[in-house]
Model the fold of this input.
Amino acid sequence: MDATAYKGTNKLIIGIVFGVITFWLFAQAMVNIVPAVQDDLGVNLGTLNIAISLTSLFSGMFIVVAGGLADRMGRKKITYLGLILSVIGSLLLVLAQGSILLIIGRVLQGLSAACIMPATIALMKAYFEGAERQRALSYWSIGSWGGSGITSFAGGAIATYMGWKWIFIFSIIFAVLAMWLIKDVPESKAETTGKFKFDYGGLAIFIVAMLAINIVITQGSELGWTSAITLILAGVSIVGIIAFVRYELRQKQTPLIDFKLFQNKAYTGATISNFLLNAVAGTLIVANTYVQVGRGFSAFQSGMLSIGYLIAVLGMIRVGEKIMQRVGARNPMIWGTIVTLIGVAIMGITFLPDLLYTIVVFVGFILFGLGLGMYATPSTDTAVSAAPDNKVGEASGIYKTINII
Done:
């Protein structure tokens, strides 16, 4: 089919949403089922935490690379690669009897997310325009932002009543359905000139910096925040980031990250605000873990606690789209951020007795969902519409990196 004549369809939207949901099934759901996985596989908590963080690490390290490759090699091709990696990674977790397949599966799932997230956004921009693109991105946001709530609730229920491995069987099913739904979509590539030269030097520096940052964040408390190892890794993180930026600014042909993208104020604003909002979005994970470990909730009860977030974010994403179309993107992004921060503050009141705390956290989850839902589509549409057509995959990779790290 001729790509220039093709217009996006609901079938494409559903396929992309299914693909995005696979990420949350193996990312968010995994966080909610730590006790069940630990009991079943007999791995210690430290190993399990490393396995969980590997998905974020590998997706964070390679999402910009995958976004740039999607622009060059084909957005549909990279989406398919991500879905295939998702199937293989999930299958390894289903077959896991110990830590080896668990860790390999989590690495593949991280690479899967790195491919799927930017390539699917790029497909949305390629085949939808104007209000139709905003509608398509609303549904993408339902899969991306709402997916965390869907899988938090569904993952807890599945783990409690069917067994945790069934989560990844469902992930495989969604990935296969996504491949079938987008099979007739023509390939989309950026129009480029000159020979492509991959930025291996930039990638090496980026990987070192990201690895150091991830170890500090995930292992800092265990190593000791003031220990020599932690301080050295923190130094490597800072030096690595500075070295990466300076190195990339000197690359004239095909840098790993084209910092010229940040000359567009709209794109920069959307990306920075997305980073700040995601910096507090980890509250969902902390709250889910706390109520299980500190308050004795089951995985299912923890999932039920977040159902208010799920309903709110799913309902509000389309509302955020309509508000944006009436008053522009800036106001719903600001309003959404404020409501989200109020929800986070409420969830932090952990000194309350059990019943009162449960009620307060439930309300906090609802406010979190309302704010995030209002913010999601205006932010994503601003980032996508501001990105050049030949770099939308790379720009989307940068924008989504901070959702995954």
About this structure: The radius of gyration is 20 Å. The chain has 16 helices and no strands. The CA atoms of residues 202 and 256 lie 6 Å apart.
